[in-house]
Records
---
Amino acid sequence: MFSKLALRNVTRSLKDYSVYFLTLTFGVSIFYVFNSLESQWCMQMLAKSAHYMVESILIFMNVFSAFVSVVLACLILYANTFLMKRRKRELGTYFLLGLPTARVSLLLFLETLLIGLAALVTGILLGILLSQGLGLLTIAMFSAYPSGEAFGLVLSGKAVGKTALYFGVIFLLVMVFTGLSVSRARLIDLMQSGRRNEEMRERPLWRSVLTFLAGVALLLAAYAMLLLRGLLYIDPLFFLMLALGTLGTLLFFRSLSGFLLRVVKSRKKLYYKGLNMFVLRQFNSRIHTTYLSMTVICLLLLLAIGITACCVGLNNTIEQSTASAAPYDLTIQNYSGDTVRVDISARLTEAGFDTDALLEDSLDFLLYYNDPVLTGFSDEEANAAVSLRDYNALMAMQGKAPLAAAALPALSREPVLTGYGAFTGLAVVSDETAARLSPRRQVFAANYRGDKQAAEDALNAAYASPDFHTEETSFHLGTRIGVYMENMGSKILVLFMGLYLGMVFLLTAAAVLALQQLSQAADNAPRYRILARLGAPEKMRRRSVFTQVFLAFFLPLSLAVVHAAVGMTAANAVIAQVGRVDSAASSAVTACFILVIYGAYFLATYCGSRRILKENR
């Protein structure tokens, strides 16, 4: 009987559960997507190559997942509290009819179980689809996919089990807290819920203005400290800057409860237009008590925007460094080349690497020590030199234009070595001048022919062979695939962890806002009934609901965008030290996440608020 009653309650109150169900589904899907990362092809490629970052990425993922599960648990408990508030009179009716507390707790237990199972199944199914989007993102991000493998749905049994375990524990906590709240509830409080009015004392205008100015001043001071000092100095002043920014945000929202209403009241046409007077007074009374939560929501949105945008920007910078660090498929440097020059191509052949069949083109050349007297460049400008003939041959292998002899001597920033630690500046001199310089090292650069991975495997086998090395030589091998794999691990760690945290913070902020607005809509239902009796048209009432929800959602978002713009400026200054920052790409990705998650909650909240008001007409 209770199972049927629980199912009927859930079905009947499906619209009331919409935001709660949306929060659970989004939480489950996000949790599954990022915990299924181990099954993505990029991680499998790293695992096949025994890359050291695989274990680090999985450790970070487990740590972040534990943190995210705590955040989602708090969010789901908060959402459940909202539902219990909406159902107080219903629960009071159960008690009034003589239903024991244990039976009511059992009923709520079954309802939570049904909603939890439905959200878990829906979230995992959505997560499986979204994980394919993650796979497509990795393909676009790395501009590659393993040859001979078909792209399709990937189901991670480990991620499904982990998601079910974590959310099973969360739902169990929800059931326990629900049972405790029911056991402590008093019948009179349940039956009189919604009848208590909140006292609202209007603040003097001068106090609101001073609070607003103080908040703006603190924010400007925090912005100035961030832009002047940067993000690299973690000291007491850094934490002071964070404190100033947080306090400034708090004072900004605190001042709006008196400041915004007075400003709009001074514009009579705007104030008396439609239901603006009602909307502003309702918003003013709410922000009077919710300014603290609006501050927290604004900071959560700041973290979501900042983390997502900065991680995408840093990912693009890492991608740029791949091209500059790997101009050729391989370079072998002979550090003993200043005294002992060897035929590297012949050594590879002796070690079992078929250079004729596996290499498209190659060049064996010398790098020289820079001599400012001969090259005309200081050691700070150029820390190595190369002859014009070798330089133009290297540029031809990269598909770049040659350097004219008339431009000599020239300073080049073009990469000529594959691998990190390349020369920051290269003096290009005539062949005659190069002959007068002291050799620094011998370099063999080449590009593969045909299957690059097969050629890479053959090269690694030859390089590991004792036939290649001798006691008088010291070699260093750098390959484009090696650099690529190194950057793949860094990009996975930076981008996916950033997206993981950014989406969770955005989900948390949007869900809390949605629940607050739905609670406000339930409280405002009697007021809208009065407006209807006074003759306010349906269209005007709908517009007032939209305005209240819009202000609640986009006021903290607007300030968070300002915070994030300043923070991203400082972060980009740090990222720009190692490469160019693609602000457009990071902004576009962040905007997409906000549009999908934040926009979905905004629409769901608006529709839910309208429905609550319609039901109470």
Note: Residues 480-533 form the longest helix (54 residues).
---
Amino acid sequence: MIEKPTYEELKQRVKELEKAEEERKRTEYMLGESERRLRQIIEFLPDATFVIDIEGKVTAWNHAMQSLTGIKACDIVGKGDFFYAVPFYGKPRPVLIDMVITQNQEMASSYVSFRKEEDRLISETYLYDFMGCGPTWLWNTASPLYNPEGQIVGAIESIRDITKRKQAEEALRESEEKYRTLIENANEAIFVAQDGRLVFVNPITALMIGYCPEELSARPFVELIHPEDREMVLNQHVRRMRGEMLSHPYSFRIIHKDGSIKWGELNAVLINWDGKPATLNFMNDITERRRSEQEQEKLQAQLAQAQKMESVGRLAGGVAHDFNNMLAVILGYAEMAMEHLDPVQPVYSGLEEIRKASQRSADLVKQLLAFARKQAIVPKVLNLNDTVEGMLKMIRRLIGENIQLLWHPGADLWPVNMDPTQIDQILANLCVNARDAISGAGKVSIETNNVSLDAYYCSEHAGAVPGDYVLLGVGDNGCGMDGEILDKLFEPFFTTKEVGKGTGLGLPPVYGIVKQNKGYIYAYSEPGQGSIFKIYIPRYFGQGEETQKQAPDESFKGGNETVLLVEDEPILLEMGKKILEKLGYKVFPAETSAEALKTAGKHQGDIHLLITDVIMPEMNGPALAEKLSASYPDLKCLFMSGYTADVIAHQGFLDPKIKFIQKPFSMKDLAAKIREVLES
């Protein structure tokens, strides 16, 4: 039999039940308050947020979610069966929040991106057409909700429309890709300098400097700059880092990895790179432009030098004309005076000295004009030793006292047929070149010899032809030349001398003279070993002039022919008349072409020879000869001039068939030339 509880026991039980009921109500109230506060928090969240319980029913749907989906909270709260997925996918289906409840991550592959951070799931979704608004990007995050016992009782998911951010990121990516493409394919070097190093370089920068990007970033940029330009470049960089506006680019030299020097032209702007100031630099490779500018400057300097030499030559030509005329008078009258004296008379020896001095002065003028490249070209059969020996005194003056001149003449030299002034010009150019190659004291040697070039030698030396030659060699113990310089040695205007140094136009004229005389020139040289120039002049096989001149009676042979002498210098005209009359000729003198034509017109007999100056006022010598030949078809002509080759060239007087005698000339030379013309 069950014992009934006492009244006190029942009373105590009722109190416990009442207390439990109060506790339940209080708990329910607190839970309700908690849910209310949660709903308030969820409602005011900026992101679209909703909550489901463990059964998948919606328990909260905030205002942002309503705005995003167009579904009101009252129409969805309490509903399940994945209805909350319909606005996004057009049909009920599990979404991120369901993966929290089920702990099944097989759906992760349906998201563009997915990751898990502890119990929180994060994903990105791309919808091709969301709510009729076109392509849309959504950022989703879902977390579980726990009860006090730590059991999952639901889940919360927030959704954010990140379409604009994604569009901005895509635009930025496209922009970066575009600029990256532009930078990497740009024709100029583009690099970023920060804290003295290159933190970014495009391919052209690496190609220009020769280092790969990793090598460039590992070394200070200043090491890549030519030592002489570093201070300037650093100064420009500091000014740029201070924010100064530098409107003009500047150029400097860069040391390539292979040691060669490149020229860069740089412009830079101040930028922010990884939160720190840096310079964005744009650099063009102007190496070829600088080389071209330097070549242009060199050519300009050489042109100026050529023009200077041209001016010097013209001045020399003008001086030579007057000087030659004076020498002609001195030489002519001295020789005529000697003709009236006995060699044993004391005054005769004095006149002989005057004659010799005049001749030496004439030779000196020829040498000076040869150096100025303005002497008329008159080939003669000559012995090269005699010609060189006549030039030695002047060469010693050219090379200076600190350089020893060595002369090694060959024995029994074959004759050559060449203008001696061209030999003088060759020697002057080569010896001056040797002088410029010697620093301080040194030696210059000149040698001659007979040489026979065979087929084998000529096959090894381009331009050479087998045969007999007279060798003219000029050597020095100067600085020498490398192969690159040797290849360009005879190119017009080529020089290794600095601006303002050196003389004349260099070695190309030597090459031209040698080729003009069908000769051959070869240069041997090595850096630090000096240079040797070997010139091969063809042997002359005809009868030499020296042999012809050994007949003394023929030297002063005169005649009785009629000569028309035209000379615009009265003193020379008078002297020439006396010389010709002494030689037995009948002479008609004239100071002008007009007077000569008038005299010829009045003369009834023959005029056998016209001797005329080339350059005269009103009508020059060749024009006068052409006009007289109409009346005197058999008229022979001998032209004379104290002017130089360039002046004569302007008068059209370059035909080698025309007979010409250069002032000053001796009675002996004039007499021989007249007979040569009349008897030809």
Note: The first helix runs from residue 7 to 44.
---
Amino acid sequence: MALSIFTNASSMSANNALNKANSLLTTSMQRLGTGKRINTSADDAAGLQIASRLQSQVSGMSVAKRNISDATAMLQTAEGGFGELNNIMDRMKDLATQSANATNTQQDHDAMQSEFKELNGELNNIMSNTSFGGEKLMSAAASGSAEVKAVAAVPAKLDASGNIVTPAKPAVLGVAAKDATAGGKLVDANGMNFQIGDSTGETLNVNISDSLAGPDGLQGMITALAKLDLSVAKGGTPASGTGASSVAAVKGDFAATAQDAMTKLSAAMEKVTTIRSKLGANINRLGHTAANLSTMQDNTNQALGNIRDVDYSTEASNMSRQQMLSQTSMAMLKQSNNMSQMVMGLMQQ
């Protein structure tokens, strides 16, 4: 190699090696400091694109899992409400069954009707007020019409012969009107759509509106139950015979009223069971969806980590190697810079 003052090839080579070692050392230290293999697009352009897509999927899956948790909680709230409806109807059917027995007195029927009425009021309360996040779930959509029921008093008394005397006209005490309640989420004809994945096609539709709304739905059945009165004989017309035969006739009508209540309650309980079955099936489905989503998220996270995360053992070895190369390059740069002094030595000779 020729000796030259203007061009020192050894010094330039050592300087390039030093710069390269320092650059790689800086990269290794940055990776070890952040824990990421890709900190800028220059580190791995293709890997950055793949990692960004995987990160978006992982984030979407996390939101979908929260959606599933919220959906499950909502459906469990509704199912719990329907479960309580079922318990109340069980008790109401027991009362109707007891009322059908001929051993009951009028006071017995009155007591059973009092409990029957309060239980029916709680049925309506659950249907109207069961909510999730401030939104009603079960109440039927308002139709703008009202249910009007006349309330009449029919006084009856026995004459001296023991016959029941019926007045010509009953006295009308008043009318009771009841408007339909505002519509709930489960009554929506389109059902409820839950986003259970990170893509547009991953949705779950829960629709039980047919079982809830309309005269044949649960709401209509509960409305019909409100019209039953276990304390009044079916037909509402007192008997006109003598005491003993009159009482027998009235008790027969009580049995018919109670049996009508039993039939309607059985149908309503069957409707509740159908609704609970649908809700339970969807709750179970959401559980499996959440489990599958967790597995997908774990695997996607692992793939993301393989691309994005730094391997500390490998990177620590790289850093040590670059530190040694930087030190040796600096030493060789010092030695190459001394070669220019050899020219001065030749000139002195």
Note: Confidence is low (pLDDT under 50) at residues 141-154, 169-182, 241-252.
